[in-house]
Amino acid sequence: MALDQKKLTRDLGISLFIYSLPVLAIYLYFRLSNGIIAESHISLPSFLEFAKPAFENIRTWGLIVFMLILGAVEFAAGLYDDQWTGTERKIDIICFLAPKLLLPPVITFFSLTALPYLIPNLANTLSWVPFWGGFFLIAIADDLTQYWYHRLHHQVPFLWRFHRTHHSAPYMGMAMASRQNFIYTVFFSQIYLTAALTFLGLGLPALFVTVIKSTITLAAHSSLAWDKPFYKYKVLHPVAWVLERFISTPATHHAHHADTSGDGVGHFKGNFGNMFFLWDVIFGTGLITRKFPESYGTKTYKGEEWYAQFLWPIFKSKKEGSPLAEGVLSIPISKSKNTETVKQNVYEPVQS
Questions:
Q1: What are the transmembrane regions (predicted)?
Q2: Total-model pTM
Q3: Torsion of Cα atoms, 230 then 232 then 233 then 234, to 10°
Q4: Where does residue 304 rank: exposed (0-12), middle (13-18), buried (19+ CB within 10 A)?
Q5: Which of 17, 116, 154, 288 is spaced 20 to 30 A from 269 at the CA atom?
Q6: Are 231 and 289 spatial neighbours (Cβ–Cβ below 8 Å)?
Q7: Is 84 inside any structural domain?
Q8: Ramachandran sector of residue 59 (left: φ over 0; alpha: ψ -120 to 50; beta: rest)
Q9: Is residue 264 part of a domain?
Q10: Are 300 and 323 in contact, with CB atoms under 8 Å apart?
């Protein structure tokens, strides 16, 4: 999917406006309340107090347990159809475990060392922001930024190969939910954005956003199609209409992982939203069909070695014809070039 400069400029302008909305809302709130900062509006709302311990536990270990339990249910139900073998098993396990061991030191260094150096004396300077304002601010800043990060990795040929690992799995489910090139994960801009906002005093709303977002994105990757009842029963159709346009669901996200768009269901050229599908609605990159693809992955997948998928371009694939192999450059195919030259210089398009 090529970059349309005019559309890109328009969408970036809309994004800047959306980013400004929580700031504008907080400003108007204090203007209307005569600038009074009360303890009641910056503390956690009373109706959420009971949930705070649960959210803290879910963030530390609960999400991992959730993934493992849901994955076990998927396997027990036979939803992987014997596809989880060999290289697939190895890359999924490594992508699940390695970031949990390697990322915490990176994030800790950024939070405790880099931020105090980059923005000294600014710790907790946003602690006066109401909980709802912080939640609104982080939810938009985090997820809209990830939408763009995700979208550009599909539209820029060089970046695609860092994200390609996530689309190589020929199945959906908890096994592949964490399947990413490590460099793609390390440079997740929203990780550092959320860490910075937490450093500035918005740790509590960041906790709630993180847990809610993680739950939604994991559920969207699941092979258990929990959204089907909303499409099946007419009384639930109004709920489905709102739900599928607001957050990512299995139907919309599975379509993003389809291996073709020719069937009218697959939509790997869109449906980029992670927590909010709303971004795809706003920017016109969404497709809602309430149907599920027949097959997943990329048609040019070569079953590349785990180290090439996880750490390209540090390690290259030895598979002939692989976009992750040595000597494959990120430039378009030229029809005037002979076949051998093209073979050495082609970038892998996002499925065609």
A1: 12-30, 58-80, 101-119, 182-200
A2: 0.88
A3: 90
A4: buried
A5: 17
A6: no
A7: yes
A8: alpha
A9: no
A10: yes
Q: What residues contact residue 123 under an 8 Å CB cut-off, 6+ apart?
A: 116, 199, 200, 201
Cβ neighbors of 69 (< 8 A, separation 6 or more) are none
Provide the residue range defining the domain that includes 133.
Answer: 5-221
Residue 315 is assigned to a structural domain of this protein: no
Q: Is residue 184 part of a domain?
A: yes
CA distance 244 to 96: 27
Tens of pLDDT along the chain (352 residues) come to 556 788 889 999 999 999 999 999 999 988 888 777 766 566 777 778 878 888 888 878 888 888 989 888 988 888 777 788 888 999 999 999 998 888 888 888 888 899 999 988 898 898 889 999 999 999 999 999 999 999 999 999 889 989 999 999 999 999 999 999 999 998 876 678 888 888 999 989 998 999 999 999 999 999 999 999 999 999 999 999 999 999 999 999 999 999 988 788 999 999 999 999 999 999 999 999 999 999 999 888 888 999 999 999 999 999 888 888 887 655 433 333 444 433 333 445 444 4
Question: Residue 134, exposed/middle/buried by CB under 10 A (0-12, 13-18, 19+)?
Answer: buried
Domain count, the chain: 1
Give whole-number Cα distances, 33 to 20, 128, 253, in Å.
20, 14, 41
